[in-house]
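Input/output pair, single chain:
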Amino acid sequence: MKLEQSFQVQAPIDRVWEALIDVERVAPCLPGAEITEGGEDGTYRGNFTVRLGPTTASYRGELQMESVDEPSRTVVMRATGQDKRGQGGAKATIESVMHEEGAATTVDVVTDFTITGRLARFGRGGMIEDVSNRLLRDFSKCLADAIEAPPASGSASGPAPAANHAPAPGPAAPAKPVRGISLLLAASWERLKRVLGR
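Output:
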């Protein structure tokens, strides 16, 4: 299955590029993702958990930076994973292309993926597509919040901010895992609204 998605970040392209090629920085923004090991060869190992209603699938796998082309602002990642219970697997190729639009940066993402096992049945009726689109929205919001936040002033070990000043915003907190029931219901509701033309 192939998905084409886009999101925009209100930040210069250089900042967005540096963030998106830093796997350990962006992984916490993807609900259910955890990087457990990063190699110098650009291969990262970790876990990814997906919950859809009563079905939970936990994958153990690898993410590899297959191509990083800074002049064209294009990065291609390849991910593979196996269900920890041996009940299926997943593999995906994710290509992200960035381009400037004024003071903002638009990221176009094309994901080509295959899922086997228990979650494969959610591919019927476009449910996987709806859930993936919602996950991308959560991911892009978390990432945009982290990139757009101005850097904290002073060192982390410095004195606390004065009482009459708000603390400087730092990187966004990792996104909480999306609960399966709410994610499934939200995706179903969005699909129903499209069918009804609302």
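Residues 162 and 168 are 11 Å apart (CA to CA). The chain has a mean pLDDT of 74.
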